[in-house]
Structures are given as C-alpha cells and as structure tokens.
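Here is one such tokenized protein:
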Amino acid sequence: MAETQGRDAEQKLVNPVQTNTNAPVEFDLPVEQARRTAFVARFIVLREGKRTKAHRVIEQLAWRQETTAEELYQRFRQAFLDNKDNMMPVDRDLRRAFKHAERQHMVGHFVREYQTRASTSFIASLYDYEKSNILLFGEGEQPRSGGWRLPTELEKEKEEDEGEES
C-alpha cells in the first residue's frame, strides 16, 4: 500500500498531466500547437542560465506538428535522466513550464499568437526566443543566454553533421 502511494506521488511529480482515460479526447491542433509553443518558450527562459549536456541533446530535437506539450515534457525530462542530472531543479522547471502552457486564460488569450509561432524544432524555438528578446529589449540589448547555444551555431553544426553523413 505504501509502495503504491509512493509510486503515485512520484508519478504526479514526473507527469503533471492528470488524464481521465474514460473521457473522449478532443485534439484541437491550433490549441495543441499554442500549448506546446508556450511550454517550450517558458522552458527556454527557465533553463537559460543553466548548463548541462542534456541541453545539447534538447537543442537538436525536432517534432511533428501534432506533438503535444505533454510529449515534449517527457522527451525533455528523458534527456536529463539519460544525462543523470539532478532531477529536482529539472522537474521544478518542467512543471513550471507546463503550468504556464496550461493556464486557461493564457492559452485562450494567446492561442492565435502562440499558434502562429509554433515550430517543429528546438532550433526554430530559439530563433523565436531571440525575436521576442529583440522586441522586448531592443537590438543588441537582449540578455545573453548561458544555457542554450545560439541557433545560428546549432544550424551550422547540424549542416556540418549532415554533410559528413552524405
């Protein structure tokens, strides 16, 4: 009994999504894209001052248009687990980013904005983050990220890797 309760508590920590398996699931692509974009954008901000090898893995991720915030939550978390990172701060940041994407007033108000910014890669999300910073702080005044590499560096590295595979 205690073991089951411990596992349930751990599952809530690991997966913040409480689903009712009996309820029919409606998939609204624009809303899912907005939720996913809000999740990734907030995650970038929360982890920008931290450095870990898991960041290098996440920077290279790509996904489908139909990918949900929940799926990215699990993929991002798995990158940190595989890297054997301290999961307490990682889980805190993942939960905070997910809660940001779940806020009903935020998603309802910004669904069109986030949906137009939806991307299918972390590199594209970093470009979006740069654009947002330019709008907020002006050209050349945006804060320097420490945890994420510049998207131009990542694209160059990706092109080099693809050239070696050919």
About this structure: The CA atoms of residues 20 and 91 lie 23 Å apart.
